[in-house]
Amino acid sequence: MAEARPAPGRAAEAAFRPWAVLNDRRFLPVILLAPVLIFFIIWNTIPTLWLLGLSFNNYSLTSGEPPSFIGFDNYISIFNDPDTWGSLSRTLLFVVLGVGIETFLGMLLGFLFWGSTRLPGRRVALTLLFAPMILTPVASGTFFRFIYDPTFGALSSILRALGITGVDLLGDPDTAYWAVLAVDVWMWTPFLMLMTLAALASVPKAELEAAAVDRLPWWQRLRLVIFHHGKFILILGVLLRTIDSFKTMDLVLQMTKGGPGVTTNTVALQLFRRAFEGFDLGWSSALAVLLLLISIAFTATFIFVLNLRRERAGP
Q1: Neighbours of 170 (CB within 10 A)
Q2: How far is residue 228's CA from residue 203's CA, in Å, rounded to a whole number?
Q3: Most exposed residue of 115, 147, 197, 231, measured as fewest CB within 10 angstroms of its CB?
Q4: How many whole angstroms separate alpha carbon 268 and alpha carbon 249?
Q5: CA distances from 8 to 3, 4, 13, 19, 180 (A)
Q6: Beta-carbon contacts of residue 92 (< 8 Å; ≥ 6 apart)
Q7: φ, ψ for residue 2, nearest 5 deg
Q8: C-beta of residue 283 within 8 angstroms of C-beta of residue 78
C-alpha cells in the first residue's frame, strides 16, 4: 500500500511556523526580555564601549583631526591635574554632607509621619514635602538663585528687615558652597523620607506589637525590629542618593556655574565644561570612565556591607 504523504504546502507550513515560538514557554523569558536587552545594548553598552575606547585617544572637535591613540596619557593627565583633585574633594564632601543630612532628616520625617496616621492635614503635608523632589534641578536652581539674589531676592528682603545687609550667599566664597548644599538637601530629603516610609511599611505589625508587649526600649525596637526588616530599603535609598549626588552638575551650573572662582566646582561640572565647552572629548571620556568606576565602587561597597549584615544575622 502506498504511504500517505502530506501536501507540499502543508509540509512547508509545518516546517516553518514562527508564531509557534510565542506559544512555547521555553522562549517566553527571552521574548519578554528582548526589548529591554536591545534598548540596553543600543543606549548603554555601545556608548560605554565607545566612551572607553575614546578615552585612550587624543580627540578634540575643534582640531578637525581624527582621534589619535595615545594610550593612558589622558588618565595620567587627570591624575596630575590639581584642579581635578580639588573638584573631586569638593564633590566627595558634597556627597558625604548632603546624603548624611538628607538621610537624617528623611528618617526623622519618615518616623514622624509613620507614627501620626491620624494627624490632621497629613496628606496635604506629605504632598507639599514631596513637591521639591518632583522639580527638576534646573528649575530648583533658578528658583533659589532668585531667592538668594542680594538685590531683590526674598531672603535678602527678610535679612534687610532684620537689619542685616550686604549678604550675597552665592557671591561669597565662604557661603556659596553651603548655599548650594542647602538647596540639594531641600530637594532630596523627601526622597529619603519616602524610602523610610517604605521601609517602615515592610515591618510586620505582629513583631512591633510583640516588642511593645515585652516593653522593649525604643532603641532596641529600632535596632532589632524596624531596622532588621527595613534596612535593605534604607540602604538602597542611600545608595541611589549617593550615586546621584556624585553626579551633581545641573544644580551647580544653574546657581553658581562653579563659582565664585572654583568654590562650587564639582567634578561632574568640570567634566561638562571640558567636554561641551572645551570640546576635549578624549580627556573628558577618560574622566567619565573614572567616575563610572567610582560609582561602581560605591555600589559594590554598599552591596558588600548589606550581604555581610545578612550573613551575620543568619537565616
Answers
A1: 22
A2: 9
A3: 115
A4: 5
A5: 15, 12, 9, 20, 75
A6: none
A7: -70, 135
A8: yes
pLDDT tens across the length of the chain (315 residues): 455 555 555 544 545 566 666 666 777 788 888 999 999 999 999 999 999 999 999 999 888 889 999 999 999 999 999 999 999 999 999 999 999 999 999 999 998 888 777 778 788 888 888 889 888 999 999 999 999 999 888 998 898 888 888 889 999 999 999 999 999 999 999 999 999 999 988 888 888 888 878 777 878 888 888 888 888 889 889 989 999 999 999 999 999 999 899 999 999 999 999 999 999 999 999 999 999 999 898 888 888 877 776 666 655
The reply to whether omega before 35 is within 30° of 0 (cis) is no
- The set of cell numbers assigned to 216 is 522593649
| Max CA distance (Å), the chain | 114
- Which domains does the chain possess? 69-139+189-313 (1.10.3720.10)
196, three cell numbers: 523610610
Q: Indicate the residue type of 179.
A: A
Minimal CA–CA distance to 255: which of 178, 164, 155? 178
Which of 63, 118, 75 has the alpha carbon at shortest distance from 285?
Answer: 75
* Percent helix / strand / coil, the chain, rounded to 5: 75, 0, 25
